[in-house]
Amino acid sequence: MNSFEPQIIAFCCNWCSYAGADLAGVSRYQYPPNARIIRVMCSGRVEPQFILRAFELGADGVLVAGCHIGDCHYISGNEKCQEKVKITSELLELLGIDRRRLRLEWISASEGAKFAETMRSFTEELKQLGPSPFKEVK
Amino acid sequence: MNEEPVRIGVFICHCGTNIGGFVDVPAVVEYAKTLPGVVFATNNLYTCAEDGLASIRDAIKEHRLNRVVVASCTPRTHAPLFQGVCEEAGLNKYLFTFVNLREHCSWVHMKEKEKATQKAKDLVRAGVARVRLLQPQEEARIDVEPKALVIGGGISGMVAALSIAQQGFPVYLVEKESEFGGFVRNLNNLYLGGKDAMETIKPLIDKVMANANIIKCLNSRLVSVEGFIGNYNIVIDANGKEIKDKVGVIVVATGAIEYIPEGLYGYDLYENVVTLTEFEILCKKKALPKINSIAFIQCVGSRGQDKSYCSRICCNVAIKNALNVVENYQDMLGLGTGEIVEKVPVEMKAPEEILERRRRRRGRRERGEEEEEAPSPTTGKIEVTIFNRDIMAYGVEHELNYNRSREKHVRYVRYTPENRPKVYKEGDKLVIDYWHDTLKMQRKMTVDMIVLSTPLVNNPDAKELSKMLKVPLGQDGFFLEAHVKLRPVDFATDGIFVCGTAKGPADITECVFQAQAAASRATIPLARGFVQTEALTARVNPTLCTGCGTCIEVCPYKAIQKNKDGVAEVIVAACKGCGCCGATCPEGAIDLSHYTDMQLIAEAKAALQEVIE
What we know:
By secondary structure, chain A is an alpha/beta fold. Chain A is 43% helix and 17% strand. Chain A has a 4-stranded parallel sheet, with helices on both faces. In chain A, α3 links the parallel β3 and β4 (102-106). Chain A starts with 7 loop residues before the first strand and ends with a helix. In chain B, 30% of the residues lie in helices and 22% in strands. Classes of the chains: A alpha/beta, B alpha/beta.
């Protein structure tokens, strides 16, 4: 189990969280290389379907990251995202996927440290949880 | 898709040693060559340098590339550069994908080259999977009607209209009252020693009246607005006459009104308790009652008492009025007019203007009669006290006024929100019972008149207007700009701008700044004559749409409407491409161009698995 390296898909909004990830890089904050970032224009773009498909395709965890509430580049996309993630995590539970495998974080363009910390803690948590049950089926 | 098979070129950057030092770039290049659709892959020391850019340009031609992937730094800084190169080589710039190998890989995994290299391969694979599915996009042009609409004929509205008109564009200036001037019409003077407020702004009104480009609509209101930037169909009820026209941009300058402190400090109980604006009206009408002492109470109804915000201007206005009283009381007493007012009544006996204002605000009817009494002016010095939580006389002029008021023995007494002063009547005297925070003592002060400094609050009409224009109001009821720092006079909706006290308390100087700023922003599309729409917009599949309207609700820009067939239709000019509608559509009928469901899922799949379909 110790050698298990979880695969993470991170949907990051272009304006805040993707930029936060950029800042983590510029600041040379080191974090585990488990996540693959997918850029979306707004966290509100992330459909429940994307999250479910990611798990189906073998992700051990999915991170959705957007601007802090009130800071959305598109006024209120992150609020809609929040609602969707909430519903999706309930759905995951029904499917037998621990809801801790889906994370929603607000990471601003200035929060490189928070991005790196999120990556560290999420990777650690997923290591504890072990491979996703969907992955084992595959 | 009736096009030629994809031919992808992958360019992987060393960025000196920034990537090359921590990722095995040649290995990633070799890997990229094995990916489906890739016909060319290479590495560059610096892809953003001229030779790097040339290698992209040449490869597009030589290898007939129709898709390009650059794996280097971040698209947030460098995408436009590489997209430009693609365009130079004749490739639509949307057939390009950026892979972030520096900020998201080499710089954050500096101690694990093997894993970083594996991650780099995964990221490139995901980028290749994405680029295969990309489609060329066009940014459409939409014509702009070179006319403007300014709503509100106060200072801000007049300045904005004049500024737009002077640049040569016709402007509708819509004012609901019978004269221009707005809130300033209430005021006595705008600065100390200055002339009457109306006299100060008269040149501005004259210029507005004389400008042939301004279509002056008095006693008018906006009936309806439909459309989007460049093409707003407006209907104005202009003094009973209906005007229908098309304008390109709209400036909201509806101003603010004064908060009525009902139930606070005896405002609706005692005579001689007035608001700051009512006090200005009394001064202007030279109708001050005879008094020996006067107290101003600051932050009435603001800063947490009812409204959360600080109204900013009241400290300065109170100081100005305190000095007016100290220096010019006799002038404002109505000597020579024979109309000296004994007392300012609670409601019934108020001078006409106050009565009128109160009637308008509260919808109550005028009752009672005017009581007249023989003039008996006082001659002695007037004691002026300003009860405050803290005085914020910001800027150059106001701080000097504050100093001057202290020299003239205006007293400043501090109170805390936990211990607000209490106003009651003892006999026929107004008493302020207060906790002196410096002396730590409960004290009483008898005064002849009390002026309550209340905040500006948004015009009651704002709500209706915000719905009509589909622009938001903030928490405090004022219009909410697109970005508090970077876009202070824009709305998030293109083509609509805001200035003056409609978006929060501001003094006249600031209103003029904002109005000029809004006018300058508004004339950009007018002068250009067209707007370039976003290429990345939502697209509705009308055969899947059931017309449920969920997308219309979630769209932050009101860029979706139902067409005559009852299905959703995107107003391309208004769409910003956030994709919230697509993520919400229960039928999967909406997709976002360039970030389609298929493209994003393919990218996720390739990031997770070794295969690209």
